[in-house]
Batch of 2 targets.
Target 1
Amino acid sequence: MPIIKNPKIPLLHKVIITAISSLLVLLIIWPSEKEPPLPVTPSVLDETENTSSLPQQSQDTQPKEGDTQDDEEKKEITYKGKLNSLNWRLFKIKSGENLAILFDRVGISPTTLHNLILTDEHTKDLASLKIGDEIQLGFDGSGKLSQLIQPISASKTLIVTRENNKFESKIENKKVESQLNFATATITSNFWNAGIKAELNANQVLSLGTIFGWDIDFALDLRKGDSFSVLYEESLVDGVVISKGHILAATVTSQGETFTAVRTKSGQYYDENGRAMRKAFLRSPVNFRYVSSNFNPKRLHPVTGKIKAHKGTDYVAPVGTPIWAAGDGVVSESGFNQYNGNYVFIRHNKTYVTKYLHLTKRFVKTNERVKQGDKIGTLGGTGRVTGPHLHYEFLVNGVHKNPRTVQLPQSQSLSGETKRNFIALAKQRLEKLKEFNAPLAKVATEKK
Ligand SMILES: [Zn+2]
């Protein structure tokens, strides 16, 4: 039996994840305050002329009265081990700025900049600091740059020190620890909001949608009162969470039915009985993130004026939303007509056919082989429609079925020792999930 791989994430999906993550990162690192005002002391001398003076311990390095020290600068005081006689200032790279511009602003000579950057491999990266990056500069009593500290990441810090008129650098690594954490939510508006409110990050919410995407149509099936619980790992440095990681176990309860998934050590997801979460068909060919209304899907009726059973599911989402192949198969037709607009039909095997109508663009040709999750086109409003949407049909032996409730082929299951090991792991993780959940459940009962 082939090992079930993680669901394939289409490119746009990745782009969105990246975009959202970058946006979050930007929001986190965006300078929230104005740059600290230039201190009255020390005056920064041109170092090309005075490179022999040693750092002095003198009263001069103490901030004088009237010296403004805002919070950003005070933060430096807590920097362990680096607190010495130097006068420290903290800077954030501003828009349109680089280290050269920053140094110029501070009054450090181009020669010093040159020597600093060319110190070694580590210091080269100083040339490509980005907006929001922090840099701390320590000046000696004569105002000469003696030390530079630049946090590369939450766990890595570059420290450049002047030693005998030359710079030396080292990277300080902090220990990254990991721990389990937990999130749970009951849905009140939609799945995305519930996930973010439960303090999952964007990637985790999207992962949750992917892990359960073969069982639940997150775009249309979730209702108010549905809920989920998630056990995940997170990384810490100095006791502070620096990133949230993989979902280790999760349950989603939708309209009375509970689905469970547990991650194997190698990163695949199975249910508590060792059955793969991945199945032959996705419940929805559209990422839930795009679909406009989760609870009240607007049914767009054909504009023929005739009363006719609506034999498909309509997903209302912005024009250009990527449409995925629900399963592996061969494109039996990729074409255009006045009713369907741009359409793609996929034959998955003798039994199953799926149809995708009203697309703006088609990315596949007739007779082309497609894999589950492949982007076959983008959502549009071509053909006879009252507004842009995807009309999706699921046919079993030529008969239309509701793709969200139809019984689908069983997924593959683990067996033998692999299965026994997995069941043991799953038990542990689900037990942990329960443990986390217990105090909350108690609170809920007491409230009643
Ligand atoms: Zn329709």
Target 2
Amino acid sequence: MKAIIVGGGIGGLTTALMLRARGIDCELYEQADTIRELGVGINTLTHAIRELTGLGLLDKLDAIAIRTDELHYLNRHGQEVWREKRGLGAGFDVPQFSIHRGRLQSVIHRAVEERLGTQAIHTGCKLGSFTQDEGGVTAYFFDRNNNHVRTARGDILIGADGIHSKVRHTLFPNEGGPIWNGLMLWRGARDWPTFLTGNSMIVAGGLHAKVVIYPIAEGESASSRLTNWAVLVKTGEGGSLPPRREDWSRVGKREEPHHRDAGILGISVLRSRSPAVLDQRSRHVARRRRASDVSGRLQRRFAGDPRCPRARRCAGPCRASASGADGL
Ligand SMILES: Cc1cc2nc3c(=O)[nH]c(=O)nc-3n(C[C@H](O)[C@H](O)[C@H](O)COP(=O)(O)OP(=O)(O)OC[C@H]3O[C@@H](n4cnc5c(N)ncnc54)[C@H](O)[C@@H]3O)c2cc1C
């Protein structure tokens, strides 16, 4: 049996390893010209890590990821709503990892190259169409200029081509595109002082605006981590059309996250100190801009420092002020 996998993201690459482990031949086709380390933080929960552990990748992931050990939910004032252990501490047999999405993809990509050979991965091949007959599937691939570059024949075709899947659209042409829930997300990663256990994850805010912060790798110093931040703001009605198609690599604008709750910590930090830009660029620009004045204040709040003005006003424990009202 031979499988054609369309898409070289985390799903497609992992599928290739899984098929290989079961003795099924496969070839993978990716539209991008190279498989690059794109993206920022991604949280891989224990059910995903168990699968990757089964593929023998635990040690490699452990070397580049952070074992997330606790999750704090805070309201928009930074008061704790809920706290729970994660991963091994919660009783699972494998850890939960917070990891850079590109590095995770690289680990899996390298394993595919080692186990299947580089010839099994075809980049610069965008699926244009496919047909089925009694004997199998024929798929037609094109380059970025829409020139036909390859025809593949297999027993089955697996669509791992992301949220705007061509495979899905071909099979279910009347289904329409994904339904937007009205939330817009901005995210980035930067070197940032460790907070709480050093492996903690924070979700602060409510249904209309929230910030998610968690470390994804060792930092530039022993007391810092490469830290992922994501800001979500409800900018539209669920089911309405999004203002534009989402893009994991588009540089954001500081004035974009406007909402009455936009004073929450992350957005305030973005607005006042560092540009809401993405990926490597964000880290480099942000570093040049100096994080120390922001992080000093942020640290005090994570530590529940009495100098934090909110600590005096909060009814509950002030673990992290999620408000930028005092000029963060
Ligand atoms: C560039 C990028 C950056 C991301 N960054 C983050 C992040 O920072 N944090 C986070 O939580 N999630 C991120 N994601 C999403 C996350 O990786 C996925 O939601 C999740 O891993 C599921 O993976 P997937 O393999 O199903 O889809 P994806 O990761 O979206 O991969 C789909 C792959 O299929 C390819 N493809 C699409 N159409 C075709 C076609 N017609 N022919 C051939 N190939 C095709 C795409 O180029 C892509 O490589 C990112 C996704 C991408 C593509």
